[in-house]
Specification:
Length: about 425
């Protein structure tokens, strides 16, 4: 069994928790000093750093949420000057307010190290060749996986997303052993291989894949593995943490959450911790993050944490599958989409009524998004050419805002269902079985 940092990865729980409490208290004291935002939060509930002596005390600190990031756009929550930063990533957020995250050199190192531990735990080493199909650029997926892979000494092919035929060509021509992408893109590659008569087992050296960026199910994984002979490991993270950060080990039974880097709470709706293994809201405190620290950040995902010893020998708790979101954010082909973004685009066109419906499907496990929206009575178009032209205009504007393509369908006034009270705008028919 190989480890990246054996001593820390196999440290007993009591020692890990003592280390966490120590790091929490240091981080709280530092943040109280340097962050006006955080000091204000502490003061709002009458706390000073000296009051935080236990995990229970720590739970008195109010949560941070996405709306705090939005309210402090772009960099109001950074606690280091740009001189000390080496990288910025930007992810999509609600209308007009993406999330901007910054990194010091230490932040990039800790991020890469977190991935290097996880990659080693799933059996990767310097012998591996990684084809990284995550998007490079503002999205954290591409560069995150890239740096982690290089740190373990693997060879990286920074191919990024798209151009599937070239992806498949290079899979055959180069000794690629690990493919990284969103689950839906991995399925798409497998489909195109089938259609073009390429056998992943015979024509490539691919034996492992890392899937992240969107939810999928255990049965989807089993199907993919049976079909391709490639073992798939889950990856979880968020740009607010650093990026993709936690991976499954060879046991494929939950993702090790490195307790010296991240203190993860799982809470019920009243904010109390649930027993180990039970589902609840994920709340994250990053213990060593420098430029843009997170203290009790409610990410919006729901899952459970298992502290039972893993068969791989690692003692750090395992995060089980994400089973839902607590807000209205949708993840479509790995991209965060908020219905409010779509609503604001619709609002830009006087020809459209505010009635719309978003329908999500996933034929062949590839997400598709249909946006139906009504014309107003006054602006009904007479001929098809006009309708088509207008549809293209709305589609292109949506693509600009969402960064993914939506299938826009304009419908007659009064077609879409009316709701009393809160409208139900999203129909999610995606099937992960
Ligand atoms: Zn393990």
């Amino acid at each position: 069994m190989e480890f990246w940092e054996e001593e820390i990865e196999t440290m007993p729980r009591e020692q890990l928790e003592a280390m966490q409490l120590d790091l929490i208290r240091k981080k709280v004291a530092e943040m109280y000093e340097v962050s006006e935002f955080f000091r204000g939060r502490m003061q709002s509930v009458g706390l000073t750093p000296e009051d935080i002596q236990s995990f229970e005390d720590f739970r008195k600190i109010p949560f941070m949420t996405k709306s705090d990031l939005r309210d402090n756009y772009p960099d109001g929550l950074f606690v280091r000057p740009y001189d000390e930063l080496v990288r910025i990533h930007v992810s999509s957020g609600t209308t007009g307010r993406p999330t901007v995250v910054g990194y010091t050199r230490t932040d990039v190192d800790n991020w890469s190290n977190s991935l290097a531990r996880g990659m080693t735990s799933l059996g990767m080493s310097s012998k591996d060749f990684v084809q990284n199909s995550h998007g490079y650029g503002l999205f954290t997926g591409g560069l995150g996986i890239h740096y982690g892979s290089e740190l373990v000494g693997a060879t990286v092919l920074p191919i990024s997303t798209g151009n599937t035929s070239r992806q498949i060509q290079l899979l055959q021509d180069l000794p690629v052993s690990v493919l990284v992408g969103t689950p839906s893109y991995l399925f798409h590659i497998a489909d195109v291989c089938d259609q073009t008569g390429v056998s992943i087992q015979k024509d490539t050296k691919l034996r492992r894949a890392i899937a992240g960026g969107e939810p999928w199910s255990e049965s989807m994984r089993q199907k993919f593995q049976q079909r391709t002979g490639v073992k798939v490991f889950n990856c979880y993270g968020a740009s607010e943490f650093y990026g993709p950060m936690f991976l499954e080990c060879e046991a494929q039974d939950g993702l090790h959450v490195w307790a010296d880097l991240c203190y993860m709470e799982i809470l019920d709706d009243e904010g109390n911790p649930v027993p180990d293994g039970e589902r609840g809201q994920i709340v994250v405190t990053m213990l060593k993050k420098e430029a843009f620290p997170l203290i009790r950040y409610k990410i919006g995902d729901i899952s459970s944490l298992e502290w039972t010893r893993c068969s791989c020998g690692r003692t750090h708790p395992r995060l089980m599958r994400i089973s839902g979101r607590s807000d209205d954010m949708l993840v479509v082909r790995g991209v965060n989409v908020f219905p409010s973004q779509i609503e604001s685009v619709i609002g830009e066109f006087p020809e459209l009524s505010p009635f719309y419906r978003i329908t999500l499907t996933n034929p062949n496990y590839m997400d598709e998004m249909i946006v139906e929206v009504e014309f107003t009575e006054e602006s009904l178009k007479e001929d098809t050419a006009q309708v088509n032209q207008f549809t293209r205009k709305v589609s292109s504007r949506l693509k600009d805002i969402l960064n993914i393509k939506a299938d826009v369908r304009l419908v007659l006034p009064g077609t879409l269902e009316r709701f009393e009270g809160k409208a139900k705008h999203v129909v999610d028919n995606r099937n992960y079985d």
